[in-house]
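Translate structure to sequence.
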């Protein structure tokens, strides 16, 4: 028997961000969490955690639409977002 899972899609700028840029990730899914993490690709260390803000719900899919701001993270490197 397979467990119920919910996939939250994460959208970021595909070209990346400069240290001084506004940095925002968008989230979409049925069960969007309250927090997200920015994780260093090479060390797998969480380098920043932030709050996810719900913007609303897609009336057709019932998925929540949300965002998280990580502009305060200014260390250059390669990272991914997890929630």
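Result:
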């Amino acid at each position: 028997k397979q467990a119920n899972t919910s996939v939250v899609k994460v959208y970021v700028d595909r070209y990346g961000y400069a240290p001084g840029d506004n940095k925002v990730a968008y989230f979409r899914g049925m069960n969007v969490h309250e927090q997200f993490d920015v994780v260093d690709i090479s060390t797998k260390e969480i380098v920043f955690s932030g709050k996810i803000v719900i913007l609303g719900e897609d009336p057709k899919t019932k998925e929540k639409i949300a965002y998280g701001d990580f502009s305060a993270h200014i260390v250059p490197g390669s990272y991914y977002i997890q929630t």
